Amino acid sequence: MRQERPELEELIAVARGEAPADTLLRGGEVFDVVTGARIAGDVAIFQGIIAGIGADYEAHEIVDVSGLTLVPGFVDTHLHVESSLVTPFEFDRCVGPRGVTTAICDPHEIANVIGIAGLQYFLDASERLLMDLRVNLSSCVPSTEMETAGARIEAEDLAPLKSHPQVSGLAEVMNYPGVVHRDAGIMAKLKLFEGQHIDGHAPLLSGLDLNAYVSAGVRTEHEATSAEEAREKLQKGLRRPSPAPSPGKVWRSASPAARATSRRLKPSPPPFVRMEARPMPSASMRATRRR
Fold this sequence. Notes:
Blueprint: H1 8-15, E1 21-26, E2 29-31, E3 38-40, E4 42-46, E5 49-55, E6 59-64, E7 68-72, E8 74-79, H2 88-95, E9 100-105, H3 108-114, H4 116-126, E10 132-137, H5 155-158, E11 167-173, H6 176-180, H7 184-192, E12 197-200, H8 207-215, E13 220-221, H9 227-235, H10 249-264, E14 285-289
Parallel strand pairs: 1-6, 2-7, 8-9, 9-10, 10-11, 11-12, 12-13
Antiparallel strand pairs: 1-4, 2-3, 4-5, 7-14
Helix pairs in contact: 3-4, 9-10
């Protein structure tokens, strides 16, 4: 459920302490997951946006969080909700209290069964949840021409859904041979989402074929099977939103590449500064008792 952003001038005024916030979280400490620091001071929330931290603010409502540590909400960057065998509503009820405030899903399993109606169901559900459920529109229904599926989704079917506010982009492009050999159907989908987020899915792809795949606009890929494969994909600009598909054997193999890469990456700004506040334990930040 996405809230409308406030006017920029109003948000800046609240952040600077010139105007009151809607809600303050007072008395706790913010744990900075980038630097490891604990930051004392108020957390000011204005129209669903965290406007500022680490300062003294005024607000219409003050929530006492003394003795608590405030941490950013968890973001699950890639999942298939229907794989859990529950609805988006039950998924929200189960993971929200455990700190997951945002999830980016690809509902291709339900889409493979009932087509566009499955995608529309997820989009409708995303407007009624407490958590922020973003939807990547399924790119490969069916996954290949060898599959017997319950539906077929083409670019023209996705086009009317593309502008939905909860749509993040095109879901994992599993038909990587279709990309490399320029299949007309997959080309139409890539062109439809050109310049937007496109997830990848291309195990064992390397060399010139990987170059071709990346040039098509794919931004992420989570199917590396070795450290060497992960390293090449990182070097060619693909981000990896989640560990390899088998978190045990495969990720242990790939972890040296991940560690080497992470040491060279510049830290990002603290994610909670841009997070939307949610009506769960304390906005989009989860309070946990200090040990």
